[in-house]
Amino acid sequence: MEWSASTLWWIAAGILVAVELATGTFYLLMMALGLAAAALAAHAGLSGTAQLVAAAVVGGGATAAWHFKRYRMPRSAPVERNRDALLDVGQTVRVEAWAPDRTTTVQYRGAAWQARLADGEPAAAGTHRVAAVEANRLVLAPAPTAGGVSGAAAAAKPPDA
Fold first, then answer.
1. 25-30: long-range contacts at Cβ-Cβ below 8 A with a sequence spacing of 24 or more?
2. pLDDT of 9-33, one tens digit each?
3. Which of 91, 97, 114, 115 is the most buried (most CB within 10 A)?
């Protein structure tokens, strides 16, 4: 039994899809599109060279297009500050006082948590938001008030005359 060129292209495309499912390498799907284009070229009766060109142009073009699309996408925040990965980021806590080393213990989710003040932030008591999570320690920053200014900045602002 002799297999047609289109059958071989379809089998190769199926193998690439299976490998992609096992590895999660999305670029392999783009290459599988090229192999599918070669199979369609074989169905259309084009020569072996035309089939290879179709595979290269479609697979390479799809891979390049996907690469440039990903390159232009905004980068996500590092995982310790990423709200999509850590649901604690953005939540608010109440800080009663800061220790001299800029750490404190806060009640959060029904338990006592160790927390440190984010770099460059003033050590003032009040409402803070979770800016990041480092291991089992919260990193806190002053929470913005309704006017968009943090509590410490609002306290330092002179009252209007």
1. 26/66, 27/63, 27/66, 27/67, 30/59, 30/62, 30/63, 30/65, 30/66
2. 999 999 999 999 999 888 999 999 9
3. 115
